[in-house]
Specification:
With 108 residues, the chain is of the alpha+beta class. It has helices spanning 32-51, 71-74, 77-96, and strands at residues 2-8, 14-20, 56-61, 64-69, 101-107. The protein has one domain (7-107): Alpha-Beta Plaits, CATH 3.30.70. The chain has a 5-stranded mixed sheet. The protein is globular and about 40 Å long.
Amino acid sequence: MLRVEFYEDSQGRLSSFVARGHVEYAIETDDVVCAAASAILQTAWLGLQEHLRIGVEAERSPGFLRLRWEEDGRASREAQAILGTVRLAIEALAKQYPENIAVSTARD
């Protein structure tokens, strides 16, 4: 199962997320649900870093992705729009595939 935990700072702004595990919907090369989740989560990275030029601290390995973005960038409405959309998309995917994806939110 893929578990995605979004973190909010003390002001309720998205500040980071951690994704652990594997979707296991299909065999690895045919797992469209895994591909969708991966694309959605990596879109946050691209949007923040390449589009908004916000510094992103990232750690990635098989079955693991952690992103944390600069505190200064958290105040950006554009950053929160990107991150909020990513969270909505992952939550929607989790509703479609509850046996494969779990989503939660916690405070930093």
